[in-house]
Structures are given as C-alpha cells and as structure tokens.
C-alpha cells in the first residue's frame, strides 16, 4: 500500500485533515462494499504532528496524532499533505518554524508534497514553491503573491501540479486533490470509483466561479485604493486610461505600473472584473433577463460580454445563474 502522511498543527482546518484521510482510507474499500466485493485498501494514512501530540483545530476539535513528523525512525511516506490553515495565517507560520524547516528538507526525497488551500503558505514559506506553479485560496492569493513573489501563483486553478508538488485551491478542494492523488498512485479506475462512491464532481478545474473582487483590494497603495473606489461608482461608463490617470494624479505609465503591482491586473482588466462581479450579483439575486443585466453593467454586445464572463468565471451567464441563483 502507498503511505500518506497528513501534517497536523494547531489552527488547521479539521475537515481538510479528516476528509482527506477518509478519502485515502476508503479508496478501494467503499466501492467494493457497495458491490458486495472484498475491500482492498490502497493507502495507509498517518496524522503526524511535531511531537506526536494531539492538534487542536480551528473549530475546537482535538485530533489524536499517529506519531511525529520529527521522528527520524518513521518509515518515509509516499505522499506528504499539508492541510488548510484555518487560524490567522501569519500566526501559524510564526508558531511553526520547526515545521517550515522540516518541510524545506523534504524536496530531496522521492515523494510527493501536496497542500490544500492556505496550506500552500507553509510550502512556500519553506521555499519549496519558488519558480513553481501553485494555487491557494482565491481570497488569499494577493497576500500569497506579495509574500512569495518567486512563486507562479495561479488562483484561478483548483489544482496545480508542478513536478512532485501538488496544490489545491479553496477550503474543500481536498476532494479534488484526493481524487487526483488516488488516480496518480492507484490508477484511473480507483479514482473514478472513489469519486462515484463519495458523489464527488471530479470534473471541477477552476476556482473562478467562487472568487470575489474583494481580494484585489488586499494591498497598501492608497492612491490605487482611491481609484478603485472611484471605479466602483463609474464602472458602467466608457473610461479611457487617460481619465483614470487624471483621477489618480499619475501619468499613464505610472498608473499602469502601480495598479499592476497593487492588484495584479491592469486598470482595464480590473474594470472588466468589476462589471463581471456586478453581473454575477444580479444573476445570483434576481430573475432579470440576462441581456438586461449585461446592459446594466455597461455592455451592449451580449455575446462579447458572455465571452468575457465565461473567461473570468468558467461559466456562461445562464449556467452561472443555474448553479448559483437563489
């Protein structure tokens, strides 16, 4: 059987630990039981903490550990998984310097390292993601980019795989990460059976339908923040770059540089995102006709906006309303 080590620490998200353990423990088991066949477990799992002590998760649940990741006599794992950070991220990084140091030594061994959601901060803090493609929760992606500029952050992706490191996006993306890892180690049949047994949508690839524009405001450039406030009230208008530069009191070149550094986007892309975000809100909360909503956010060409909407959310406006409409 393949061996999986899930790393436990105080402030972790309990479901990201227990859920991924359930998936691995029941791969080859639940499907067999459903069909009256002898179960064949495919993975062995261990929850490891610094000293083998229990870890207290963010929801107050305390989980018993199977051992210590610091125990050099433990047999090595094929897969090491860092779960979601549920507590304040910087606090967890500060209080787990020994774990960060231990993780930094794991890239030399023949194993796969994986993180879920904000667990990617621990891998990045250990220097394991420099020059690699990675994902994390969309809501913390700007913080991640600012702290780890050497990482190729792809928050629109639900799962990234770069060599022997895999990262999953949002908090419940351990489903997708687990299904991927089962396929990688046990084959596509085992993966499909697991997804069917757990009723998991194995076709998800993007966090885009869930992301919010608020993440673009996680920066300290007061001038850009003021311009974002102004755009909130004028996004339905046709706005030239020269007008934006005038509003900000900057040259066009300086505006482009500072806006990109602060938000990760150009002003024009941000304006498009504003329109998409407002369209999303209308699609979620009203039954207004789609073409009317598109006109409301400043577009006249329905097909052009539909393409833009799909680009940023992964769904056409009608499909988005079907999934998220109230």
Automatic annotation (TrEMBL):
Superkingdom, natural source: Bacteria
Gene Ontology MF: a single term: sequence-specific DNA binding
PROSITE patterns per the UniProt record, alphabetical: HTH_ARAC_FAMILY_1, HTH_ARAC_FAMILY_2
Protein name as it appears in the record: AraC family transcriptional regulator
Lineage: Bacteria, Pseudomonadati, Pseudomonadota, Gammaproteobacteria, Pseudomonadales
Keywords per UniProt: DNA-binding, Transcription, Transcription regulation
Organism: Marinobacter similis
Any one Gene Ontology BP term: positive regulation of metabolic process
Membrane-traversing stretches: none
Domain HTH araC/xylS-type: 225-323
Family matches, as Pfam families: DJ-1_PfpI, HTH_18
